[in-house]
Amino acid sequence: MAMSNIIIFAALVFGNLVDAWSPAASLLFSHANQKVPRHVLTMNQKEPTKRRVSSTKAKGFAIENKVLEFAYSGSVRPGKQSPQRVVTNSNIVLPDYALDSRPKKTSSSLPWIIEVKTPSEIELMRAAGRCAREVLDIAGQAIQPGITTDEIDALVHEETLKRGAYPSPLNYHGFPKSCCTSVNEIICHGIPDDRKLCEGDIVNLDITCYLNGYHGDCSEMFVVGGDTDDKSKELIQVTYDCWIKAMSFVKPGRDYKDIGGIIEEYVTERGFTTIKSFCGHGIGSVFHTKPNILHYKNNEPNGQMAPGHTFTIEPMICVGEAKCLTWPDQWTAATQDGQRTAQFEHTLLVTETGVVPLTGKLPDSPVQFWEKESKIHQGIW
Fold first, then answer.
1. Cα 45 from Cα 33, distance rounded (Å)
2. What is the CB neighbour count within 10 angstroms for residue 75?
3. Using an 8 Å Cβ cutoff, are 292 and 302 in contact?
4. Over residues 183-210, mean pLDDT
5. What secondary structure does DSSP assign to 78-89, as a single string?
6. First to last CA, the chain
7. Which residues does 164 contact at the CB level (< 8 Å), separation at least 6?
8. Residue 366, preceding bond cis, omega within 30 degrees?
């Protein structure tokens, strides 16, 4: 699940990490697309706009957005949300934000200080990663024309609980659903609702499962109906290939900052752009922590890779301009120009010799066209 770009001056050295999903964080930071001085990093910014939008009012668990005027950038519109699902099984370990929406655990404020997992923690991370992969595979196979994203969310919720896990997005800073479904021009954090998927839509399904105290986070693209336009196919292929190239770079002793340059260089050479407003992140018992993984060329002091580090790489690549428009729900991030975007994500473990995807595909996982036709790595990575 995407983490917005990062922190402000003092927070880099002295402050606490402002969480990617915190609605309050938007009050601290400026426009995501403005130039910012070195080491001034932004996260979860809300786009300044002259559009007139009313406030959001909660009705029970459902959220009603009363929009007076809002110029949506593409073809997708918000639908009706069902009541927020709940977890009542007392045997399932809950994250610290499950009941009140506020994460409690923190990590070092220094961006280069990264937690090294113990062997027992790594085993728990493996289990959480496999859980997330299983749920993603099941939910992905349900994607077809006519199904609603809310129906997908219900399946994700049910399959997560079946495995003794908690769906990590649920109530994280008040997020209303158990997964993110980002369709066509939606970059990330799309909220499942009653909108039906259409033939030719492209969907990013983002799954995170919290199992026995640890998170496993992954996402994948799906083409509704199995076919779409050529530009969307190219977008998905380029996004997948830059992601594989970036993950293949991971090795002890290398700088995290260099991941971004690999991604940006690959996509820009092919006429695409990379989102700078959201980033990958460290993960473990805490949903979002260090290191911060920027998906564009940068010189940020985000540390060096070492065995036992766990983190995500999750580039968000666009057909048009890499500029974000936040919907009135204050979660959904769309491209400003309404053109399509794609994303892939794994939870990764740095080993003594390289990297292992903890959310990697299983022997029975479906293989998509971009895996078969990849110029970087054919077949399952």
1. 9
2. 12
3. yes
4. 98
5. --PPPPPP----
6. 20
7. 91, 92, 211, 212
8. no
Residues contacting residue 6 through CB under 8 Å, at least 6 positions apart = 12, 41, 42, 43, 111, 279, 292, 300
* Eight-class DSSP state of 74: S
Q: Which residues share a beta bridge with 62?
A: 59
CA distance 32 to 339: 18
Rounded to whole angstroms, the Cα distance separating 134 from 310 reads: 19
Pairing of strands 186-188, 202-211: unpaired
Site of tokens 């029975």: 364
pLDDT tens-digit map of 93-132: 999 999 999 999 988 789 999 999 999 999 999 999 999 9
Interacting residues of 235 by C-beta distance below 8 A, sequence separation 6+: 202, 272, 317, 318, 319, 340, 341, 342
Residue 72 buriedness (CB in 10 A; 0-12 / 13-18 / 19+)? middle
**In which residue are the tokens 């499942």 written?**
192
**How would residue 178 be classed by pLDDT, with cut points 50, 70 and 90?**
very high
CB-based burial label for 26 (10 Å; 0-12, 13-18, 19+): middle
The per-residue pLDDT for 344 is 98
Instruction: Name residue 313's beta-bridge partners.
Output: 346
Structure tokens at 51: 């559009």
Which pTM was predicted?
0.86
Distance CA 108, CA 13 (A): 9
Beta strands in the chain (DSSP E): 3-4, 56-59, 62-65, 166-167, 180-183, 186-188, 202-211, 214-223, 273-274, 278-282, 289-293, 310-313, 316-318, 324-326, 333-335, 341-343, 346-350, 355-357
Per the CB < 8 A criterion, the answer to whether 362 and 133 are in contact is yes
Torsion sign, CA atoms 253, 256, 262, 263: positive
DSSP per residue, 235-302: HHHHHHHHHHHHHHT--TT-BTTHHHHHHHHHHHTTT-EE-SSEEEEE-SSSSSEEEEE-SS------
